[in-house]
Design brief:
This is Monooxygenase. InterPro entries: AbrB_dup, AbrB_fam. The protein is mainly α and about 350 residues long. It has one domain.
């Protein structure tokens, strides 16, 4: 955002996002509150609306979603972890292959420089890739917009594909499925609130990536796997959190000239196709080695963001624990290995 430009209206952004979410929920479209908010605010941003979402509100709602996702982890999880080793190993191979192909695509199709292509192609770690890419000499604005477009396109595409090609049907009610109610016992409120507050503090102290999501999710998963509580955040609160998440994605495009958005989204369509096709191919291959259906593996591998893909899995009634666990590993692989690999390639003169 340029100096002197108004910061933008958060009230307008949330009103547009809530309106889009309500419209999508009424139409019984997949993941309505997040997708509706995302589509509506992206359209508003493209048309020049000066909108924003305060980082602090987004952080609070990310913590709520983290607790919600953690509540999907059940005591049987401990028996499943060993079974996921093969698919997690496949995920690492997928990330390397996908990153290499998309880097080549950005260089050839978009004309990005080598550094920008590399960090824009990483299938995950938006904030980290923007920061490290800028330090390495890349165009951080292009990297950020390309990652934002990837998340937007993946989240918009997958639920509709599942509705077209699987037996998925959106829930009849307006609120997300699986949510609790506001009249839960005080003990459960205290536990869930503690997960939302303590989880990020511990995760940040340990320098865990995406601490405000992963911290509450892991702490919530721990208390749910341990049988301390089976409570989940209220459905209305989860819907509000999804509106804020979707609105935040749409607002990333605010203040960007339409021609820049159109160019980056156009280029990102090609990269998204590469990523999703690879995800399907790897899902089909890994399915032969595990008992996990290929379409669940597509959700686990799809680089649409940990919160977003886990919410898609929740909305589709798939294995949220498996999907979320794989995305945690994906983020870890990208955040730790991508900068190290780039420095090694630069040292050996490959970039």
């Amino acid at each position: 955002m340029t100096a002197g430009r108004p910061r933008g209206s958060m009230a307008l952004a949330l009103a547009i996002g809530a309106g889009g979410g309500l419209l999508f929920a009424w139409a019984r479209l997949p993941l309505p509150w997040m997708m509706g908010a995302m589509v509506a605010t992206t359209a508003a941003s493209v048309w020049g609306a000066n909108i924003r979402v305060d980082h602090r509100l987004r952080v609070v709602m990310i913590c709520v979603l983290g607790v919600m996702l953690g509540s999907a982890f059940k005591p049987q999880l401990l028996d499943q972890l060993g079974e996921w080793a093969v698919s997690i190993a496949g995920l690492l191979v997928y990330a390397i292959v996908a990153g290499g192909l998309v880097t080549w695509y950005f260089r050839k199709a978009a004309g990005y420089d080598a550094v920008t292509s590399y960090f824009a192609s990483a299938p995950g770690g938006l904030n980290e890739m923007v920061i490290v890419g800028r330090e390495m000499g890349g165009d951080d604005r292009v990297i950020a917009l390309t990652h934002s477009a990837r998340i937007l396109l993946v989240v918009m595409t997958l639920p509709f594909l599942f509705r077209l090609f699987t037996d998925y049907a959106p829930p009849a009610g307006l609120l997300p499925g699986g949510g609790g109610s506001f009249d839960m016992p005080a003990w459960d409120w205290a536990i869930l609130t503690g997960c939302a507050v303590i989880g990020p503090l511990v995760a940040r102290r340990l320098k865990v990536p995406a601490a405000f999501l992963i911290g509450p999710m892991l702490l919530s998963a721990t208390v749910h796997v341990g049988g301390v509580t089976q409570a989940t955040p209220p459905g209305l609160l989860v819907a509000i959190a999804q509106v804020v998440m979707g609105t935040g994605i749409g607002c990333r495009f605010a203040g960007t000239p339409f021609r820049d958005i159109a160019r980056i989204v156009g280029v990102s369509i090609g990269s998204t196709v590469i990523l999703l096709v690879l995800g399907v191919l790897f899902g089909l291959a890994v399915q032969q080695l595990t008992d996990v259906p290929w379409f669940v593996l597509v959700l686990a591998y799809a680089p649409g963001g940990l919160a977003e893909m886990s919410l898609v899995a929740l909305a589709l009634g798939r294995d949220v624990a498996l999907v979320a666990t794989h995305h945690i590993f994906r983020i870890g692989f990208i955040v730790i290995l991508a900068p190290l690999a780039f420095r090694l390639m630069r040292r050996t003169g490959r970039v």
